[in-house]
């Protein structure tokens, strides 16, 4: 098994310690679900905001900086999908305005992913 480069582990740790309000709000709601979700998971050259390894489900929360990073985000999504991940993206504002709706969408997609893998 390949080890995760030390700089990626350090970056993931820093991101966990410096979460946005939207990430904290969503994590608070998802952390009790089983199978477990995890924060700041390193996958290849990327760090996922929130992920469920059991379902290969990646949840990405995008702030205003992502408006100008559409190409990077598309490349990132393509890489993850090529490696078997399903990617859900939500705007931070969407999480802040409707956290329960976002959680419902994530749980529904999780169920689809788990059924598809059986």
TrEMBL record:
It comes from the Bacteria. Residues 8-109 form the DUF559 domain. This is DUF559 domain-containing protein. CDD domains: Endonuclease_DUF559 (cd01038). It comes from Sphingomonas cavernae.
